[in-house]
Fold these 4 entries.
Entry 1:
Amino acid sequence: MVLVKKREGVDGTMTTLVLVSHPQLADSTSQQFLKESLPDDDVVWEHIEGQSTLDVTKEQDQLRHADRIILQFPLYWYAAPAGLKQWEDTVLTRTFVYGDHRDPLAGKELGIVVTTGMPKQAFQRGGAENVTLDAVMAPLAALAHRAKMTWLPTFPIYQFSYLEEPEKLQLVIDYQRYLTQKQPDSLTNRQEWFAHRLSAMVDQLPAEQQTTGKLIASIFDQNRAHLDQLTDTLAMIKEQEDD
Amino acid sequence: MVLVKKREGVDGTMTTLVLVSHPQLADSTSQQFLKESLPDDDVVWEHIEGQSTLDVTKEQDQLRHADRIILQFPLYWYAAPAGLKQWEDTVLTRTFVYGDHRDPLAGKELGIVVTTGMPKQAFQRGGAENVTLDAVMAPLAALAHRAKMTWLPTFPIYQFSYLEEPEKLQLVIDYQRYLTQKQPDSLTNRQEWFAHRLSAMVDQLPAEQQTTGKLIASIFDQNRAHLDQLTDTLAMIKEQEDD
């Protein structure tokens, strides 16, 4: 199954491809939650195991078209489910990835959204898993490197079923930002992302609320400018301290 | 397809299970070569993709019975082919691996035989792959740790198709030792492995060559004892130097 979201009237935004690998997607509350949390931007969402057969040409076209590619899956034995590996082995032919020196994936971003039933502290030496999530992502990071893609910091979701409502709301925002916010995740990029969203929200308000909405947006912009100044000042002070 | 080898009349030897993952085994010259190189010891060889369906009970029984488990595969995108992951996701149920605190795999050895078309020097930072083979094995090493298995140093076979005849002969011996020699790969364990093999060979000689055969075996044993003495002396000298 493929879901295509497109925000109307917005040009020049990034296209994100979310490839979900899960053998029983309908039974996964976390995957259903993430699906409902998809931002209203240019996002193509595809369930890998949901394709009856993998259409290599279509999959490669999707990859070519995307600016950011997200692989999203539960961690099974320290890796993605077999379905994603099958997708890799089938779709990512050598000719496609680095044949003829065309490198069609070069410059695109590769991000990983991984869910696990284990807590965060398990993933460290001495922890229950005795290995970091970053270390077990080595094969995918190596793939990104080979394809000349930019590897994004992994987005882990620990023990989704134990999350309280406020944590879930935070997760929605963080997840949306991971899918569509400009990288790196700096204060400036974060603010820009929120400002973008705010102005889109204001545009959708009914006429009688437009003025209030625009006022809020303008205050947000002022605060942003003020914050930028403070950040610059702080950077200058720090620089002097380093001398 | 499953192949069971058993050396007759030898008791107390180790049982090795070789699980081969390759989507087109018949077309793989390296896998065919390794299959023909299997030692005449207690070795069970199975082609994962060759099973029409994975019989979980049978697979788990095989694992329980083995002392050393070898996963053998070509490196596809820095990991095993999808078939092996499917096997992991299906056969290695949580209940089996660490349910009820029985840990049926605890203490067994896990070894990896991996073939790659890239040269050895590609697998290092700055090399063509920019990552070590050891690093990309992190998910399998973590699995071994979780199952309380002993992780053996990986056995890599680089660019099999370029190997000359003497290198292939060396590969046969090294591969057989990796499958059945006692670990670690020390001088003593290596000698023991060869001695064991030599005496088995002598037993199979025709009657008229038995005397010569036994003479060779006895010389080998004498040399071994002599070598052991020299090794001890050398160790003593080194110890004094460290003072």
Entry 2:
Amino acid sequence: MIGNFETHINAKLSFLKNSKLLLAISGGIDSVVLTYLCYKLGFNIALAHCNFNLRGKESDADEDFVLQLAEDLDLEVFVESFDTTTFAQDSKLSIQMAARILRYDWFETLAKQLKYDYILTAHHADDNLETFLINFTRGTGLDGLTGIPEINGKLVRPLLPFSREFIEFYAKENHLKWRDDSSNASTKYMRNKLRHDVIPVLKEINPSLLQSFQTTLNNLQGSCDIIDDRIEALFKEGIIKLTPTGFKLSIFEIKKFHNIKAYLYRFLNAYGFTEWDDVTNLLNAQPGKQVFSKHWRLVKDRDYLLLSELVDDERSIITISETDKQVETPLGILFFDEADAILETSKTIVYVDKTTLNFPLTLRTWEEGDVFFPLGMDGKKKKVSKYLKDEKQSLLEKEQTWVLCSGKAIIWIVGMRADNRFKVSENTKHILRIELK
Amino acid sequence: MIGNFETHINAKLSFLKNSKLLLAISGGIDSVVLTYLCYKLGFNIALAHCNFNLRGKESDADEDFVLQLAEDLDLEVFVESFDTTTFAQDSKLSIQMAARILRYDWFETLAKQLKYDYILTAHHADDNLETFLINFTRGTGLDGLTGIPEINGKLVRPLLPFSREFIEFYAKENHLKWRDDSSNASTKYMRNKLRHDVIPVLKEINPSLLQSFQTTLNNLQGSCDIIDDRIEALFKEGIIKLTPTGFKLSIFEIKKFHNIKAYLYRFLNAYGFTEWDDVTNLLNAQPGKQVFSKHWRLVKDRDYLLLSELVDDERSIITISETDKQVETPLGILFFDEADAILETSKTIVYVDKTTLNFPLTLRTWEEGDVFFPLGMDGKKKKVSKYLKDEKQSLLEKEQTWVLCSGKAIIWIVGMRADNRFKVSENTKHILRIELK
């Protein structure tokens, strides 16, 4: 059984053998077993431990334990201390969610900076089952029932096929030591309820519950994949189209579907919408009518439902330094130093004479009173408001129009029209290509 | 609360107000509450009770109880007695499945014969939740998690949005009497476990569990609907095509999918296939290679996977009398007495001179040695084997070719070619149209 375990992990992780691995360790039994296994199999691992400072001395003892384990096994170890409570309060998140964000942010930063190829976590089959039951109990959709993936980008979870029972067995067989898992009290309460009161009864009904659960997850993941194919087809048919700040749905086409709500749920659930009747009613509402989620807005335009991000005041002016190669929020804009030939300017790619720019540039939504000199208009000045009207922009599209500026001068109405003043001329020495992602 | 209940049922059932309703009653609390409600609301109901004879005197007491209730409320009542144990043994089914088949068959026969528009059953929200958890515990796919529908053809389940707790409350408020529900012991064990040990814990975690569950079911049903749209599109694109005895899947197209197994599961799960690796491997197997389920066979043909029903020897010769208008198994063939004009003969519709036929006709699969006189071949005789070869029929298609005969003479190679000897001539008085459904 133990041999089987190690063989499985070895086979599973064979694609990681020549990789640098960062192993997330709490000091609990699961992550200690994973550490020991990877160590025994000779993988190239370093440990990463978060001290969330949520349980005073206990948290520090966890940290000490991990440091000692790293020393015993002669492994590199990283430890980071977080003021989780403050972060949770500041960002209005639950302690659990705050810890999750802090943890994964730090792992990813570490992995990036120190060139780790993969991040390993010690989730196992019972974790997966408990998550399924928590989501189910709270009410969910298909996405909430498909479980944690074994491999998801850089994240790899080698213990996912194995039960808690088996991991405990392995730990005891190998005389491993561990600390009690630190986890958020409220989830702990729920997880404990499920672990001790619910799952044993289900296992009584079906002793091979975990195996059946694996089958169920596979089947449900298959259903998700078929749905994804359907959605991809809708993109191909142009029924849903990406926009610079979200997407738009063809009202005419959506109305043809048998189960309209199902599609709206599929498209919009991830954006925090919950009032599905309101969302559905939007299809027949007056143009301009809107429904909001916490961070997103859905507007009924004439022919489309338009999804766009609500823009905070704080980030409505973005500063771009000369070394920035990429701006991510809310628009993805890329900057390339382009030495030689330029291709034709399009709505999404412009070329400018870099020496004419005053860095830092700014990116902001347009304002009443903005003027620019549209490229190809013989240097004539035009009001941005007039330009947008001529372009037949909808109310929402207008609101979401961004301008890239050098000082007060507009370089580019992003995704639409460049300004004449910054264009590349015969004398241009340094061409900058700016591209909407 | 009670008022709300009755209002809801009244509104839900408004489309049934002028209908004849058959109410399935066990004598248990749920069906008694439904009976009382329908009675109180003045619906046009009759009761139907199955005595499965599984619990001796208790079963008879249930029957007596239902008869008494019908008398008290002055309702028509039907009672049928079943030898469930024998039927289960003969048909190799579990007692539970046997009872289910007997019950629904009888309800449907009754409804058809006596022209009842709908059949009402008393399933409620907890039944639905228990079924979900049973399926989940055993291992399932999306279909096993979408619950019982409130309306499904003739079947209507008005209590589905309501909890057991609420139904009990209503029964007590109205001083109703009922008998303990009779149900199969093995499910009863599972259901009781879930009812008493699992669901209360889930309700502790989320007091509005049943409401959340309703949301989950809606969402999952939505996912099913999106998948159905995808499958419909595959039919439109010809990637899957119906055949007279099943369907066929284009191997070339299926291989393009990201998650091939998910599609094979979706197409074939309902036909009892379980060995998904074998099924998937068929895509790359030698032509002629097969995978079997209990009643179905999947064959790798050159370009297609072909699904077909396994034909029992017993039904391989079907006798058709002059009055039969329809033959259902394994092919659907319709017979129409056609007095006047005939349309063009096609592969699926033939017209014959009825007076040339010797009834009863027979329908059987073709045999080595069969000959016929293909229509339009100037009365030349041809071996059926040669004809099928010329038509480039695959091995499987050949096996599934049926012939309709008058005595020993072939009238029609079903779905392919008519015989010259039975054709309609100028002298034909009575034309029979024969059509493949």
Entry 3:
Amino acid sequence: MSVIEVADAADDRLADYVRLRDSNLRRSLEAEHGLFLAEGEKVVRRALRAGYRPRSLLLTRRRRAALDDVIGALGAPVYVVDDAVAEQLVGFHLHRGVLASFHREPLPGVDEVVADARRVVVLEDIVDHTNVGAIFRSAAGLGVDAAVLAPRCADPLYRRAIKVSMGAVFTLPYARLDDWYGGLDDLRRRGFTLLALTPAPDAVTLAEAVGEGEGRYALLLGAEGDGLSTRWLGQADVRARIPMAARDVDSLNVTAAAAIACYELTR
Amino acid sequence: MSVIEVADAADDRLADYVRLRDSNLRRSLEAEHGLFLAEGEKVVRRALRAGYRPRSLLLTRRRRAALDDVIGALGAPVYVVDDAVAEQLVGFHLHRGVLASFHREPLPGVDEVVADARRVVVLEDIVDHTNVGAIFRSAAGLGVDAAVLAPRCADPLYRRAIKVSMGAVFTLPYARLDDWYGGLDDLRRRGFTLLALTPAPDAVTLAEAVGEGEGRYALLLGAEGDGLSTRWLGQADVRARIPMAARDVDSLNVTAAAAIACYELTR
């Protein structure tokens, strides 16, 4: 472990932290180096507790002692910078003052992730990192066992998803399907009832669909706006809806619907 | 009704639509003129159906026919602009191509809003417009009868809140408390059980708190991060929690928690 003061935002040692709001740059940079960034003391501690290995930490002067109790054991450099350097580097005022860059680990396969699971959420094409983070937080908090992501679902280890999830993306095991078209077969073969959440008025109510909740359930959640694809709706064993009470509102947003469905599935 | 092509973003007739992302400017401008803005065809139609009176509409050329079926009856000018003028005016690419400025109506009083209500949500200091909008959408969609807002809760008629609510802010009746300190007395006097949602481990579970759901319930929801104030927690009849399943997640975000609580209250 070493604590190093850095005075220049262009210093190569800070390269993991550049331009955090430039999402195109970040995606290619993080993929190329196999890293992800966690922001804020609480979330960084959760990543460490979950066993992720840090590449480095970045602390502003004001928060330089924030992680003193764990820094000794990290085996990664700790960079301390002025607020102005931090802002120049990341592209906004870093008011939490704590960032860390971690190594990504190889994702487990779907089989491994669902092997002992009774309740899983399956995210089709949820493309908004905020929504992915919020769904992970609800699913993990309520006791869902795992998540499975379609190929086009947004990355749970993107900074914004991590932040909104409050670190739940570190503790809820997840895997990604290689194959969107046939991807649900594996879950069905393992005895999961495929439960598609939809606002369609002819679907059964969520409470009816879950019943006593025996058995294994995979809750399918579709994209913001468009919902589940016709393919996945067609593959589901049950189409379930959350009953709506008029007032010119025909559906809930996907994070609210996911929270309610996870609550009903795990109660 | 008149449809008017406007070629200059600085034209005074477009003044309601300037710099939509400058939240300080927008707050003072909208308060001064007693207006609010709705964005997107679907949401504008919902505002019209709910009886709000338009000051004007702003359509991009590509969407100029979007509201043709209702424009005749509006009694408000319809401005049509190029994409470039729209972008210069509002400060970003207006991809939906439909905006409308509406007159605000005087808010009803708390007594009026809760008079016939059995289920109300009470938002203490929820300061994020996204969260206010999402909570309105869930509450309205699930069948809550009204909302009551503490003095510092964010404005449901701010553009972002309207958008996230998908127009539910137009259909769920709401009022604002003048008095934070004593504001809950009124609800208690009317026979509402004050149910405070909290992650505190010693609270009863939500399902226990609601029981058979007879009687009148006011669900108290607190600020992002800090939750309900000590004052309001102390005034509650029941403190209720959503059971959490370890995984290093100690609470849900306020919109997920609100969705679950509204679902439980209205089932």
Entry 4:
Amino acid sequence: MYGLACRGSEGGARSILTEPFDAEEFRKHAHRMVDFIADYHRDIETFPVRSQVEPGYLKKLLPESAPDEPEALEDILNDVQSKIVPGITHWQSPNFFGYYPSNDSTAGFLGDMLSGGFGIVGFSWIASPAATELEMIVLDWLGKLLQLPNEFLSSGKGGGVIQGTASEAVLVVMLAARKRAVEKLTKDQGISEFEALGKLVAYTSDQAHSCVNKASQIAGISLENLRLIPTDASTNYSISPEILAKTVAADVRGGLVPFFLCGVVGSTSSAAVDPLSELGDICKEYGMWFHVDAAYAGNACICPEYRPHLNGVEKADSLNMNPHKWLLTNFDCSTLWVKDPTLLVAALSTNPVFLRNKQSDNNLVVDYKDWQIPLGRRFRSLKLWMVMRMYGSTGLRAYIRNHCNIAKHFEELLRTDSRFEIMAPRSFSLICFRLRPRANDPDKGYSLNAKLVEALNSDGNILITHTVLGGLYTIRLAIGGVHTKLQHVDAAWEVIKSQASNLLNE
Amino acid sequence: MYGLACRGSEGGARSILTEPFDAEEFRKHAHRMVDFIADYHRDIETFPVRSQVEPGYLKKLLPESAPDEPEALEDILNDVQSKIVPGITHWQSPNFFGYYPSNDSTAGFLGDMLSGGFGIVGFSWIASPAATELEMIVLDWLGKLLQLPNEFLSSGKGGGVIQGTASEAVLVVMLAARKRAVEKLTKDQGISEFEALGKLVAYTSDQAHSCVNKASQIAGISLENLRLIPTDASTNYSISPEILAKTVAADVRGGLVPFFLCGVVGSTSSAAVDPLSELGDICKEYGMWFHVDAAYAGNACICPEYRPHLNGVEKADSLNMNPHKWLLTNFDCSTLWVKDPTLLVAALSTNPVFLRNKQSDNNLVVDYKDWQIPLGRRFRSLKLWMVMRMYGSTGLRAYIRNHCNIAKHFEELLRTDSRFEIMAPRSFSLICFRLRPRANDPDKGYSLNAKLVEALNSDGNILITHTVLGGLYTIRLAIGGVHTKLQHVDAAWEVIKSQASNLLNE
């Protein structure tokens, strides 16, 4: 169809595609790709976890321009194996303990395939009704697993939506909060919207994810008007309601207008949990939008024993958590629930003539385009639906508990070796620790531990990352990979001990 | 692993998954899904193009909560077939002529599979070097196919990046432009950043995509300060440089500060093309950021005969086009090139301690997290790479030309029937037309043509959408589906003529 002579006809992945999408050519080639990916996962432990390449490595290996003529899949897969795989840091490796996990799974992958196969763009209900309706339903399902109040569900005037990432979730609710606050201020005080914007103050913990900072930059909230409330070990790095209340009161006395608080359930550095209920009371007192970012730890809250960490969420306006982190749903899938979606729509709606339709004009349907930054959107609810069905809530809870149990086991191992210390209490599957510094270490163990992390990552057996807690360099071991089992954490402990011995003997 | 007894062991897709990601279980189930998707595409013409369901249909068919216990893929696929497919509007159908196309392809799908299989999150170079480096390389490849000036490529201080959608591309460049303009104003005039923000004015055509409006809302540019320059048939709905220049000059005289212009190559309503070179001169005169949105028509510009539509792009600061529309790259893939990425980074960078690393700290690498709204990002360059390799630039050009030829053929058919009129000249693969209104039609053919569109979409043979041009209801027939061939457009013409006859005989 695309005007080329058919050059290969031996069939299979060695042939050249003769059509951009012929069902039988697709079938053959996609089967080949399934096997390639299955083999990759089967062999994943054979690769160094962190890529060992140097900056610019790939430019030397690939041509400077696209080829004129079509190439066969098998030739491309050879390049993938020899040129791409060495540049990959293997997030799906059972020995990847960096950042927070990002879960691939069989069910999530199947759902993504199906989404790609349908190839719809579900900006409005009319553009593919099933995409909007399934998303509403599965967000209700997941909201119920989290025991969210009915106000967050479609049965209670609220609703859920899938965003790409927590960054986008936080941004859209901040924009909704900004809109509400600016409108109130311009009306109450008769000032311009820019004067109003200049008065708005947002709050979050100094442990919050950098996406709150980024959302503020994008929303035009001056960084001077973003308060990162300092935390320390005395509250296990969670926000102190007293300090927050004092800060807010001082801002109000200074003529500023508190409009947004992002509370954290499971901070990026140490999985700290803010006291939601107390924060909610402060937000209510000042009329602030209360958002809860539970990107990582929210996943654990599908288990009744972890659900208390979400207590107080009933006082929030919105909540996000990322099933792509730790609930077996391939990236990207960040779920956001809001109590009043009309505020999102007010901040984000556009209604161009080329998208108008009877169902939207008559308010019979939800159009998710108005709940998000982009217009277009994939059919991402399919993967979340398949994950919930193929594992069942029993299976999902068992998955979370298994990782938390392994983390507890690692914590116990750490306690057996007095060279190490734990830097923050463990609540979920993240352990923060470090090598105790030598006496009179001028940088308090910073470079010692930085060297340990670099040594571990360089030899490729495991990947871990770091943070800083209370000014001290801290090693993070985040457990939650789809292939990670007890044996991998035991092996990680052995290499950590061994590298520590090497360093301490230097 | 996740704690369940293995309930099914007959193998294949009827069994229950015993692990969240076992390579062999994955292999079996993914092969089954490949066949499901191949069959869907094989049979795609058997479905009504536009879903025929009513709002709320799916809630009646699915349970209210997630299942406790795992279910088998085959049961889920039965539900997909019986409950989801009826709610799908089949964007990949050869008879889908609505909006603009959104191309699935074999190569694009394979690339997406591979991206999902690796499951990396490439926010920084270090997080998977191959993801960043391949993206830089394939954006250079595509930039060369578009004959972009070297300043837009990595070899010339510029560079490309994959965004999810054109909405995000336009937003990030507007944020970069805002940052630059606000800093200049606060410095030059000694005013606050909020006063500065209140002076900024953005410009685009009234034919521009609604995403420019949305980006302005998000960036805090008052809608009063977004000028939608009126266009009409006299310029084929492209911006008149004279009107733009006058509008800008009047704003400057009024104490406002022009900071951003979005020119359009291929408008959403009629694929109008703005005169880039003249617009670029105006932007230069006033120090405005000049962005070019070529989401749809930019794809055609890989063919030398369409490239003149991009003439003047050398005067732009940035350009986006969407390979997911018409270049066989599965959604989402919107490519953005900028001449000076440091301005993007200045507007969007955050540098939290938990992401710091040697390569980034030493400026040895690009970290795409600072070129986009989200932090996390998929390995989307794989699909664009596979598309360029598996079809070759020869194949991609043939693909575009084929659709444009079919569109020319449809235009000729239209001209044979005097009941119809063409509403705007055809430059690419979009045809804008309508039924001529009856004499003395009080609404000038609006309801007549709206009825025609509804009749066509309701019977399910084809899907088309509408717009309004110069106040007149206009039918859009956009050709560019991966399965669309000449015979489908011939058949569409027959049903259009037939429905028109029905309506006119009423």
